[in-house]
Specification:
Blueprint lengths: L2 E4 L2 E6 L4 H24 L1 H4 L2 H32 L13 H28 L1 H4 L3 H28 E5 L8 H11 L9 H14 L7 H21 L19 E2 L12 H13 L2 H8 L2 H8 L13 E3 L6 H10 L6 E5 L9 E6 L4 E6 L5 H8 L3 E6 L2 E6 H16 L2 H8 L4 E7 L1 H13 L7 E5 L11 H4 L3 E6 L9 H17 L4 H6 L5 H4 L15 H24 L8 E7 L13 E6 L19 H22 L1
Length: 644
């Protein structure tokens, strides 16, 4: 659990982290030993002839000796590493002795490989007269260098070259310098505010840490099992809440009586505008979502092969206008219906489209989600910007708010919306986007509402940190957020991450199982390492209070840090009224069959906790959300026709 200390230096691994790497190395070493022994016995007569043969004979004997000793040491290290529990490392206290011997063996093996390499180079003329002996020696030396190289990388990545007694906390200035070095492709002067904000964020999140990566993985598995057991006990396996909630039949929409719905907030409308949010991701995403061959054949005739000046205002697209062509194919619109397309992409500058949709009688501004490094940096600028909308003061996400102001200024400067409404008189203004684009779309709608009072916004899978609670009633009038299942993005925030870290620490503190059994879980490895049956972590308490005192102090420090983050960062929430689309749980459903969906109107409390699930990333993909909305809208339309 605690980081190991070797040679008075910290190592980014714990004493119970050698089970899986050790078993893997034993497997490789045993395989290599069998191959070397087979070739040694096969060409034993050649190895006994000449000076070169004797040298190769001696080198291979050394290789066999090192492989055998390493296998024996690894067996002891793995056996010791399997003892104890996650927090109780007393049964593993003797592992350091074997690690020191193992490092000494590695150093000797490295020197032996150097000696073998020099012997081959010095006796090269004689070796050419015995080609079989020469190639055996070459393969053995190459294998030795590969082994040493892999283990050297492991040592360099795990050792911390600072004293174990004093490890300084990285300052904000150091974090800012690191970000500037990593993102050297960006102008440091123009993006100074970005680097400063990232440095502040890292200084809050990454303090002096006593846990290692495997501890965090184990904690996530334990938290996942606890959440899953709680949902199973409440008979809400398909519902991503840990309390009793409104249940609904498949292909239905459950109404929440707390907030009145707007007439345009329907599943069919959401499905219609979702395709515009998906179309903004460009040609690469279009080919990736569909059959690559079929998608390419559809896209090729749409490209601007003769590089004619486009009739619409297109900025920074490729020379063949591939992104615009993909948008047309994805949305089913026509070239003449596109008023503007901007693909200029920097920090705070996000690509967007302005198009006319005759089916819904709307002028649509669709904003692209995260697809580049600049977009990721915009996501990470989580500072709170003070704003005032509709006479209500509050805070919003700075990075997305700056992006919304960039698009607003572009639309006003180019008179894009005036041109669009001149061609489509009486149409409504709809702003839509997915992920980052959803957050920017909601804030842009807030900015544009004084000029367009009838504006509406569909925000698909919006970020969890967007507007403060004081602004929620204002956004509920014209913003409809749509989220699918366990999507992690609407749940992701600084406070939610801090709570998850605490949940991980509590789960580790209360677990009485060894780490390798937790990680192995229900996989095929359970026959080798033993089974792991998820149990209630609250029932597993560490009996020795003195042993757990250091971990209790770690939990206390995390609680203090959570309170400090709460005081520094105002809690932000998803905007508007929220339509939550859920998969209907069906244990008999085939793995390749599409799930049945239902939906319910909910509030921000649903997204106040990060729910760990195998589908937490898949549910964020725009094509998955579009498929769910289309299926749900299709069944609702069929039922409405039957009723009529």
């Amino acid at each position: 659990m605690r980081k190991l200390r070797l040679f008075k230096k910290h190592v980014n691994i714990a004493s119970d982290d050698f089970v899986f790497p050790g078993c893997f190395e034993i497997l490789i070493r045993v395989t290599g030993l069998l191959i070397v022994c087979f070739e040694f016995l096969r060409y034993l007569s050649d190895l006994s002839q000449g000076q070169t043969g004797h040298l190769v004979h001696m080198y291979l004997m050394g290789v066999i000796m090192f492989f055998t000793s390493t296998i024996v040491l690894d067996v002891f290290i793995v056996r010791i590493s399997m003892r104890g529990t996650i927090v109780d490392d007393r049964p593993r206290r003797n592992i350091k002795v074997f690690l020191y011997v193992r490092l000494f063996t590695l150093a000797a093996e490295f020197l032996w490989t150097i000696l073998g390499t020099l012997s081959i180079l010095l006796h090269l003329p004689d070796a050419l007269s015995q080609p079989r002996v020469y190639w055996i020696a070459c393969l053995a030396v190459v294998g030795g260098w590969v082994t040493c190289f892999i283990q050297a990388i492991f040592i360099l990545t795990t050792f911390e070259f600072t004293s174990a007694e004093h490890k300084p906390v990285i300052s904000k200035h150091d974090w800012e310098t690191r970000w500037q070095n990593v993102l050297c492709c960006l102008n440091a002067d123009q993006n100074k505010h970005v680097f400063t904000t990232l440095a502040q964020l890292c200084s809050h999140l990454f303090k002096k840490e006593k846990l290692v990566g495997s501890d965090i993985l184990t904690g996530l598995i334990l938290v996942y099992n606890k959440q899953h057991d709680t949902r199973r006990q409440l008979d809400v396996v398909d519902a991503p809440l840990l309390n009793t909630r409104l249940r609904c039949a498949p292909h239905k929409v459950a109404e929440s009586p707390s907030v009145p719905r707007k007439q345009w907030m329907t599943v069919s409308e959401a499905a219609h505008f979702m395709k515009y949010a998906l179309g903004g991701y460009g040609w690469f995403y279009f080919i990736g979502l569909n059959n690559p061959v079929v998608a390419s054949l559809k896209l090729l005739p749409m490209l601007n092969w003769f590089r004619k000046p486009p009739d619409t205002q297109i900025e920074a697209d490729s020379r063949l206008c591939a992104n615009t062509a993909a948008f047309i194919l994805q949305t089913g619109t026509q070239q003449e219906n596109i008023v503007c397309a901007s693909f200029h992409n920097e920090v705070y500058a996000i690509p967007y489209y302005v198009s006319i949709d005759k089916d819904s009688q709307s002028v649509i501004v669709s904003i692209r989600g995260t697809l580049s490094l600049e977009d990721v940096l915009t996501d990470l600028v989580v500072e709170r910007a003070p704003v005032c909308f509709g006479g209500v003061e509050g805070y919003v996400h700075t990075g997305m708010y700056q992006s919304a102001k960039y698009i607003r200024n572009k639309l006003i400067a180019d008179a894009t919306l005036d041109i669009a409404f001149h061609r489509a008189k009486g149409y409504r203004l709809v702003i839509t986007g997915h992920s980052l684009g959803a957050g920017v779309a909601a804030l842009l709608a807030m900015e544009m509402r004084p000029m367009y009072p009838n504006i509406i916004c569909f925000a698909f899978a919006p970020p969890g940190e967007l507007v403060s609670a004081s602004l929620l009633p204002y956004t509920e009038e014209f913003v409809c957020s749509v989220s699918l299942g366990y999507d992690v993005v609407p749940r992701l925030g600084l406070l939610e991450l801090s709570r998850l870290r605490l949940d991980i620490l509590y789960a580790l503190r209360n677990c009485n199982l060894p780490k390798h059994k937790v990680i192995a879980g229900e996989s095929r490895w359970r026959r080798l390492f033993g089974t792991f049956k998820p149990s209630d972590p609250e029932a597993n308490h560490l009996q020795n209070t003195e042993l757990g005192s250091w971990f209790d102090e770690l939990i206390h420090q995390e609680e203090v840090e959570r309170d400090r983050i709460s005081s520094v960062y105002t809690p932000l929430l998803p905007p508007g009224q929220i339509l939550h689309v859920l998969e209907k749980y069906d244990p008999n459903r085939r793995w390749n069959a599409s799930p049945d969906y239902y939906a319910e109107w909910t509030n921000c409390d649903t997204f106040g906790e990060i729910i760990l699930s195998r589908r937490m990333i898949a549910h964020h993909f725009p094509d998955t959300l579009l498929e769910a909305l289309r299926q749900l809208a299709k069944h609702l339309d069929l039922e409405s026709k039957k009723d009529s």
